[in-house]
Amino acid sequence: MSTVPAHLASLIQNWNRVHKQSVRLMAGAPSDQFEWKTCDSAMTLGALMNHIYQAEAGLVNAAITGQFSGEGAPPATATDELIEAFEKSHAELLDRVAALTPEQLAEQIEPFGEKVGKMTRADILHITLEHEVHHRGQLYVYLRMLGVAVPPLYGGV
Ligand code: NI
Description:
The protein is 57% helix and 3% strand. It has helices at 9-26, 45-65, 79-98, 102-106, 121-145, and strands spanning 108-109, 119-120. A two-stranded antiparallel ribbon has the order 1-2. It starts with 8 loop residues before the first helix and ends in a 12-residue tail after the last helix. The chain binds nickel (II) ion. Residues 51, 55, 131, 135 line the site of nickel (II) ion.
C-alpha cells in the first residue's frame, strides 16, 4: 500500500490490527457449515462472515463518497474464497482512506440520511471498526458452538 500520512497512522494501524484478528478467526470457519446458525432469528455462519467483509466496504465507501449503497460484492461460499476477497477489498480500501486529507476527515457528511444525521468521515471510519468488532464477537460464539478452536484475541498479533 501507499505511505500512510501521519494524521491517519493511528487509525490505520488499529484498523489493520482489527482486520488481522478477524481474518485469523475467520480462517477456522468450516465452509461446510455456512448454512448453520445459532438460532432461527440469527444470520447463518456464511451470512455473518460475508457481512463482516462486505460491510467494511460499504461503510468505508460511505465515508469516502458520502453515499451509502446497500449493494455489496457477491457473497463468497467458502472460507478461503471469502478471506481472499476480504484481504483484497481491505487493501484497496486502505489505499483510498490513506488519501484522505485532515480536512476531508473532519468534514461532516450524511451518507445514512437525516435520521442518522451528520457525522464526520473520521466518525464513520471509527464506526466501521466498531461494527466489525461487534460481529466478530458473534463469530467467536458461532465458532465455539461449532467446536472450532478459536484464537486468543490479543495473543500473537
Ligand atoms: Ni451489521
